[in-house]
Structures are given as C-alpha cells and as structure tokens.
Amino acid sequence: MTEQPYLQFEGIAKQFGSFTALKGVDLAIPKGEFVCFLGPSGCGKTTLLRIVAGLETQSAGRIRQAGRDISQLPPAQRDYGIVFQSYALFPNLSAADNVAYGLVNRRSPKAQIRERVTELLGLVGLPGSESRLPAQLSGGQQQRIALARALATSPGLLLLDEPLSALDAIVRVKLRDEIKSLQRRLGVTTVMVTHDQEEALAMADRIVVMNHGAIEQVGTPMQVYREPATAFVADFVGRVNALPATLLAGGGIQLGPSRFEGPHAGPAGRDVTVYLRPEDVLAGPLRPGDSNVFEACIEKIEFLGSYCLVQVASPALGEQRLSVTLSPNFLSEQGLRLGSRLPLRLLPERMRIFA
Ligand code: ATP
To answer: Which of 62, 102, 149, 232 has the fewest beta carbons under 10 Å from its own?
Structure first.
C-alpha cells in the first residue's frame, strides 16, 4: 500500500494578467520530507510557495495537505509556519514575544507559553535570549528567532522562503546544517525555496528543479546532480562542460576532430550536446587499455581551496575548451602548472547527452 502524500499539488497554475507564472504543477510530498524548490529568478518557485501558504491564490488546480483540500482556505486556517528571507520579526517585540506570537493568538495559557518559548529558544540555539529585541540580534540570530516562531505552534508544514540568502557565507552554512538537523529531529514536512544550488544539494531530501513555471526534474540531490533529466538541469545544478558533438554509429561521438566512445544516445548523424562534469574528466592514473584518452595542455588554474578548476585545451578537442577538477595535491605532486601537458580521460559512462 502506498502512503498518501502529505502535501499534494494537482495542476497548480498561476496567471498574473497575461503572464503565466506557473504552468500546471503536479507534485506529491510525503510526510517528513525536506523538499527544495530550486530554480533561477522568475521561475515561479516563490509563487508556488506563496500559494501553499495562501498568500497567493492559484488560477487553477488544487492543493491538499494531510488529505484536506486547502486550496481555498485563508492563511490563518492553514497549518504551517513560515520563515521569510527578510527576518520579518516584529521590531518592537522581544525575542520571547516574537516566538510566542502564534501561541498568544491561540490563547494558550501563559505559563505554558513561557515554557514553550524557553524550549524553542533552546531548540534554535539561543537559550536565555527572551528579552532581547531584534535590533540587538545578528542576522543569523534573527533568523533563528524567526524559525522558533514558525515552529511554535508545532505546525504540520514548515515553509522556508530563501531563509538564508541575506546571511553571510559562514553563518549561512552553519545555519543550514542546524535547520537540516532540527528538521530531521522534528520530522516536520518542509518546503524551502532557494536559488542556491549548493544549499539545495546540502539540505534537501528531494529537489524540485523549476524553470519557466514548470518542473524540469524532481529527484534526490544525487539524482539531480549526476543524472540530470534535461540540459537545463545539467546546466543549472553544478558546473558542467557542454560540448557540441555529433552521434556516430555504435555509440561513438564526434567531438571536434576526434571520435570518442560515448553512451548509446540515438541515431547516427544527430547533432547533440554532451554534458560532462569537470570531475568526470580523469587525470591519472590512466591504464594502457583506457579509451577516450587524449593529451591536454593547461591554460588556466583557478584555485578554489579543496580543489582546482583547471581549463585545458587540446588538438583532440579542436577549439573546444574543457574544465577539469584536479586536487591541489595532484597538481603539485605532478609538478603541473600553466602550459603543462597531461593525459586526460573522458568517462563515457558519465556523459549525458541532450539534443
Ligand atoms: P525570485 O527568486 O526572483 O523571487 P522566483 O522563481 O521565486 O524568482 P516568482 O517570484 O515566483 O519567481 O515569480 C515568477 C514570475 O511571476 C516572475 O516573472 C515575476 O515577475 C512574476 N510575478 C510574481 N508576482 C507577481 C505579481 N504579483 N504580479 C505580476 N507578476 C508577478
């Protein structure tokens, strides 16, 4: 027996006048899952989240939460907590009063509210900050308070609208780990909107990649990254080499002046683009029988800390340049620098081919 999804979108469409922001989105989210809507600016991800929250009304389609049709309910009658990008705390209320806001609205007993606020502040790593005002808190701390406020009434659904994008890089990474582990601990079904692919890869159980108001792919971070369903996904999530090529008979590909072994991807003669991640171009140790090996010359080295992004050229590739990730250790052990030559191998099984 398959379990009922906790949150279900059926043909959600949205028009703003003559502009179509969402083209009929179908999606099912199981209970307890952490889902990220990921896509470029304007793809409709925020609109979709706002429709779940009842802050925007869909032009067509339905949403069910826990089996209940919530499509027409006002926000106050829906069961969610939400965190926005801009902290959106009440500036004149203390941290405790901000967190307690939803509980006071529900007329919970005072002692119970106080206890719950203490518990929530502990949960988000800010114990003892009851009396502080938002202006006395850093951006990261304000987002923790916003998170505590969103979770106060133990909602069935947590909505996160780019909650980390206003924070600096170090706080962002720290808080994303904390939100993820808190979400796992509480088991609350969570939908987060982000345009940051690294954030989505690090946090989501499943990523919904959106483009122009439609879903391009739904998958685990690993699936979306390693098995992109479309050229758009391959391009948008992670770095990729996009190499114009022509398919040859028997699974070969013509790349510039050379023939390489590739996956069987269609009839010979078809013009395609081969997508290959920089880490799927191997440099040593190569074995004698290896296919797809060619000699390349290093044109550019970008040092990125734990790895280097290296741009190479090769007569085997014609005009085409290739990005390769190499470890700084490998470069120094091999004595490789600008102008150095090295053998490389294109991994045929890692190539994704799109028309
Ligand atoms: P961003 O990350 O930039 O917010 P997004 O993917 O979240 O992008 P949405 O905010 O969902 O995109 O907007 C989708 C499209 O709908 C955009 O082109 C936007 O201009 C348009 N749009 C959003 N809200 C309105 C509105 N109230 N009136 C008219 N057009 C709107």
So the answer is: 62
- What's the CATH number for 239-354? 2.40.50.100
Cβ 57 under 6 angstroms from ligand 1: no
Among protein residues, the one whose CA lies closest to atom 28 of ligand 1: 16
- 195 close to ligand 1 (CB < 6 Angstrom): yes
Domain boundaries, the chain: 7-235, 239-354
Chain segment 57-99, per-residue pLDDT in tens = 999 999 999 999 999 999 999 999 999 988 689 999 999 999 9
Which helix H or strand E contains 231, and what residues bound it? helix 231-236
Output the residue whose Cα is nearest ligand 1's atom 27.
Answer: 16
Tell me which residues of the chain have a pLDDT lower than 70: 1-2, 87
pLDDT for residue 85: 87
Determine which residue's CA is closest to atom 2 belonging to ligand 1: 41
Rounded (to 5) percent helix, strand, coil in the chain:
30, 30, 35
Integer Cα distance of 222 and 225 in angstroms: 5
